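Render this sequence as a predicted structure.
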Amino acid sequence: MSDAETTVELLRQRMAGFVAARDWQQFHSPKNLAMALAIEAAELMEHVQWLTIDESRQLAEDPSRVQPMAEELADVVCYALAMANALGIDLSDAVRDKMVKNEAKYPAAEFRGRYGPEDQGRRTS
């Protein structure tokens, strides 16, 4: 099932079932899950560590390089889902709330084409 067909709830249930079948709840403390999430994010970063920005943008054209990154990204998402399950966080609500805060913090009219005051119109390539 694609993203268009899969709800966050279905992914959370799938992750919860995987964890329960292995009796891993005992290991899924918020501390351990946060650490695991950071480790998996670092493993994702390894795939782009020495690339230029332009080279990293070209990765999508090479399925043999995207597939290992997809697996690492899936690990990141799985640990995020496990964290949401462990803490009882509704991810959809959390994302919506965070986007409201981000929109207030970074108004489009002020930040369009730039990422912060320190860049002063500087573009990344």
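Summary. The helical segments are 8-21, 30-46, 53-57, 63-87, 91-105, 108-111. The two ends are 34 Å apart (CA to CA).
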